[in-house]
Amino acid sequence: MPALHLVRAAYGLNFANVALSVFENRHNLAPATFVFPTDTETAAAWFSEYLGQSVMVRHDANSIPYDLIANGPTIISTASLDAVCGWFPGMTIAEAGLRFRATLEIVGVPAFWEDQLFGPEIRSVVRFRIGEVAFEGSYPCIRCPIPARNPHTGADILGFQKRFAELRHANLPSWSHPERFEHFYCLATNTRVASTESGKHLSVGDALTLI
Description:
Order of helices and strands: EEEHEHHEEEHEE
Number of strands: 9
Shape: globular
Number of helices: 4
Strand order of the largest sheet: 8-7-6-9
Distance between the termini: 41 Å
Largest sheet: 4 strands, antiparallel
Radius of gyration: 19 Å
């Protein structure tokens, strides 16, 4: 829902609570602070009032990955975000980062370098390491409606998905595998991380190494 882009969340120390407010609050909805993550009923009432419909708030301690198979972090190059900014005049790289919300960002490589992290076949495995953590690249990340929206206001760029897909296809690098794309409204690479990697560390500045 585009209206959710206007909600601002500020977390307290050690995530003990969360303060919610509305940007450019035309609804005159009072900010509120909730114990996080247990205060679901009062948070539901706050969201229901803001959105004008009944809302339930639930917390899943195990998290809810959007991809149950490739449930590791998404990975993208800074150059890819910069290339996308060139397709949509006025978009900054900081804004592009908020639109596409990749977990890990690589510097020092060309645009769409991360397409090397998935293979030509669905059963292909591309293994790489960052810091102590071993990853398996899976496939290009299919995007949802969110990147078309201004991350601060929720306003849409009309024709965003069509223009993006056309330019992504036209700028597909030689190392990519077009047969792995259901369509070209894709950016970043989905990964898998084995349970054996739990508790290992990676840090800003760690190199990515193919293995």
